[in-house]
Amino acid sequence: MKKIQVGTSDFKKLIEGNNYFVDKSLLIKEFIENGADIILTPRPRRFGKTLNLSMLKYFFDIRTKEETKNLFKGLKIENEKEIMKLQGEYPVIFVTFKNQKHISFENFEDGIKVLLSNLYKEHDYLLDSDKLTEFDKNDFKEIISRKASIGNISEAISSLMGYMNKHYGRKVMLFIDEYDVPIQEGYLRGYYNEMIALIRNLLTAALKDNPYVEKSLITGILRVAKESIFSGLNNLKVYSILSFRFSDKFGFTEEEMKELIEYYNLKDSTEQIKNWYNGYIFGGKVIYNPWSVLNYIDNNEEGFMPYWINSSSNDLIKRLLLKGDKEIKLDLEYLLQGKSINKVIDDTIVMAEVEDSNQNIWSFLLLSGYLKAVKTELIRGRLNCELQIPNEEVHIFYENLIVKWFQETMTNQKYEEMLSNLVTGDIENFGYAFQEFVINNLSYFDVSGKEPEKVYHAFVLGMLVSISNTHEVKSNKESGFGRYDVMIIPKDISKPEIIIEFKKINVLSKETIEQGKVEALKQIQDMKYSEELIHKGVKNIIEIAIIFKGKEVMISKAK
User: Fold this and answer.
1) Which of 221, 500, 540, 558 makes the best surface tag, with the fewest CB within 10 Å?
2) E strands of 432-559, at which residues?
């Protein structure tokens, strides 16, 4: 039986090692037959991008034609006779930026010099070529020795393509992996502007009007065309997860999953695998997360675990959600309850502006694999998507993130005590704990007295995660003649059911917090929010008003 090799991104090693390979070789055909010279295929991390580029490298590389032709025996591409004629016919450059994660621009610049030095070392046979001038060879050696000027560094990939073209008399296949890793890292670490200038110059020189490029495939997580990295590239085509082209070339399709599961005698786990690792939709095709699926098959005796989520720090995702406004937190409530939210998506992310609008945040989450688009519709040039959490694995990520928020604002024990007091009807002690929660969160969520709604939505999110096993938590739902803020319904009908109304009073208002309390409780009564519960035959209903005025909070229970 073939082995499962998790994390191996070298195609040659995977095939020669008698490992199971989900055959994506028709990517070669689709790549060649696409009319664009430069193709960008953004996909979530660990969806097979590096392995696919490695496969392309081994297929086209003129230097390894004889030793690698057997790698493609028995694969689907072998049946494409015209495409197979191109095997081993091109000089190839493969460069990956996946390890370019540095804490400062100085370190990043050093990292790029090392990256380019190693790339040139792979092709140091060119130093013996009689087609290169001494001037060419001197520049070549400068890159290897890491002594080149910033100008030569910016032209390094383009120059190498020129040298290879001189030597072989053929244009070059250029494969660039994880081009946006340094963009994200520079954004997180605070050296974005300097970094983007260097990356832009390096890639633009390699791709724009370069006479030595035969074709190029670029991968990353995001399409960041507006960064001007790819501005002016008239021969560039972008195929994101929302595109139909290349939709089945990254991640596992349902047919591929069926073959995998049958091969490893795991058909009994089909439904659970779907629930945990399915849910992605690329260009209308249902796609499974390949990293998690392979990890599960390799460790199936341990049960289902969030492999993909645990394989990265998710720092930027956490930052975006943590800093999100009340609308973000309200939408998270809907998502955690298994519902959809409808958003306009922009698949041309500008990293520097990702926190500037909620649209950018939702676009980032979708393209990064933390949401799925169950329905897309183009309306007047704007892409409208119905979004959901894709699967159990990602759902756990959101839950863990929310738990982390509360661990950082108050101890788990205190938070659990607060919720316990609430659901048992001990409103007095709940009030003491809630006031502490508010004081901490006013600072933690950068709310100020003007936006207690953020605290309210954070509180609801916490309840959705913390008491979901014993209670149903509803928020902003219609009941009676209006929309209540929060309703807590226990699964044990002997426990009290709770309605909470939040009210904010402007700090400059003459209205007292006592008056606000009376008004909030009256609203619960007048709007008949309890109608939904009474209709179900519920008798033990607790009605609570929570009033904010600046940092002053009052909690009162209806008598």
Assistant:
1) 540
2) 471-479, 482-490, 497-505, 541-549, 552-557
> Is residue 336 within 8 Å of residue 399, measured between CB atoms?
yes
Length of the chain: 559
For 222, other C-beta atoms within 10 Å of its C-beta total 24
Q: What is the rounded distance in angstroms from the CA atom of residue 212 to the CA atom of residue 139?
A: 18
Tokens at residue 417, please?
């005590």
Q: Which of 129, 124, 147, 127 is nearest to 137 (CA)?
A: 127
**DSSP helix/strand/coil, 276:** helix
CB neighbours of residue 74 within 10 Å = 11
Cα(206)–Cα(290) distance, rounded to whole angstroms? 31
Handedness of CA 339, 342, 346, 349 (dihedral sign): negative
Q: Which amino acid is at 14?
A: L
User: Which two three-digit tokens encode residue 214?
Assistant: 């035969």
The string over 243-280, giving b where at least 16 C-beta atoms fall within 10 Å of a residue's C-beta and e elsewhere, is bebbbbbbbbbeebbeebbeebeeeebeeebbebbbbb
Q: Decide if 72 contacts 23 (C-beta within 8 A).
A: no
Cβ partners under 8 Å of residue 518, min gap 6: none
From residue 58, give the alpha-carbon distance in Å to each of 175, 178, 188: 11, 18, 34
Q: How far is CA 23 from CA 15, 370, 462, in A?
A: 11, 26, 43
The residues near 369 (Cβ < 8 Å, ≥ 6 apart) are 44, 45, 47, 280, 289, 308, 390, 394
pLDDT in tens, the chain (559 residues): 899 988 889 999 999 998 999 999 999 999 999 999 999 999 999 999 999 999 999 999 999 998 898 999 999 999 999 999 999 999 999 999 999 999 999 999 999 999 999 999 999 999 999 999 999 999 999 999 999 999 999 999 999 999 999 999 999 999 999 998 998 889 889 998 899 889 989 999 999 889 999 999 999 987 765 566 776 677 789 899 989 999 999 999 999 999 999 999 999 999 999 999 998 999 889 999 999 999 999 999 999 999 998 887 677 777 777 766 778 878 888 898 888 999 998 877 777 777 777 778 888 899 889 999 988 888 877 889 999 999 999 999 888 888 777 776 667 778 888 888 998 889 989 888 888 777 766 554 443 445 566 677 777 778 888 888 888 888 776 554 457 788 888 888 788 899 988 888 887 888 888 998 999 899 888 888 888 778 777 778 899 998 888 777 889 888 7
126 DSSP 8-state letter: G
SS3 content of the chain, % helix, strand, coil (to 5): 50, 20, 35
- In the chain, DSSP finds a helix count (H) and a strand count (E) of 23, 16
CB 310 within 8 A of CB 45: no
Q: Tokens for 332, please give them.
A: 């998270």
